[in-house]
Target: CMP/dCMP-type deaminase domain-containing protein
Amino acid sequence: MYEILETFKNSGLHGTGWPVTTYAVVPASILGDKIIVQNSTVHAEKRLVQKLSQNIGKVEDLQNLTNLKIFLNYSPCADCADVIADFARDVRGKLQVHVVFASLYNIQRESCQKNCNHKLCDTVRHEENKEGLKLLLEAGVILKTFCAADWDELQATLGFNLENIVRERWDDGLDEDEVMEDDLWELLGEEIENVQRLNEMKEEWIEEQKEKWIEEETERRLSEIKEEWLDEKEDDWIEEETERRLDELIQKWLEERKDDWIESEVNFRWEENLWDPWDDDEDEDFREVEEAWEMEQEQIFMDNWEDDVREQYEGDVLREAKNEWEIEEEETFGNEWESELRGQHEDEVLCDVEAAWETEEQFKFEQIWENENRWLY
Ligand SMILES: [Zn+2]
Ligand SMILES: [Zn+2]
Model:
């Protein structure tokens, strides 16, 4: 491990001999344990991508856009850049690949121009290696040189206590990391800025989608709850209203029966001489007949005919009640929902919708951006 850290520290220091080993280090992540590979007959980056590709199944299961950081002591050569770019495209929308390197490999550095006029530094592959880095940026890879936080993460990954690492150049005393960062910006500043702009656009776009989705989804869920509530109200109201109207009709029908019955009973009593001849209070006789209706006859009519009457009117009454619901009541209840009940549900629904955005939807939109929109710009 000590060897690895030293190699990172010594790579690319201007004016010194460079280590021959390339390491690729990936810190532990939800994809698995840390990975460390070095070059053999095959470049370290290619071996790393082979290893990462074995875990591609885990990538499929990811529920959030996840950062994958690759630490290199040298920036990748054109061939390796190609391989990493392919990998980055394969995992697009699931993994955000970062490549962090301690030095620019086989590339003309702007600082070098002034310093040694490229006499000390091997730059024969400058053009193709530069194109390789561009390719990585185009594939959505985030490229950067080491900063203090990266040294900390590398040390932690390798199991070291954190030390403040400053790489001082022997020839001019400058901080190599700072010079390296400036050189990368000289080399690819415009392209890196484009990527940053693209990332800002993505954030803005996601924010817009979030607002829109949350508003629409909240509205959709609230109207679902409203529909359910209205359906329940509709059933109850129509049942009660039908019952009420039927009772009214039966009452009316009974009134008619009562008048008919009393008339015929009075006639009957007259004909049969059932009136008490000594009693001249006719009102009392009528009251007796009425009482007889109330005590007995009314119930007899109800028992014998109520079901028939109900059956006869039920269909019409139900139709009328439904009609009445549609014309008038549905809207009345709808207004009641909007003015009183909506507010009671709003907070809870919004809370659920926001949680749904976090756990699921944001990721879907991030993928849409990565797979479709990014390439439009
Ligand atoms: Zn390579
Ligand atoms: Zn130089």
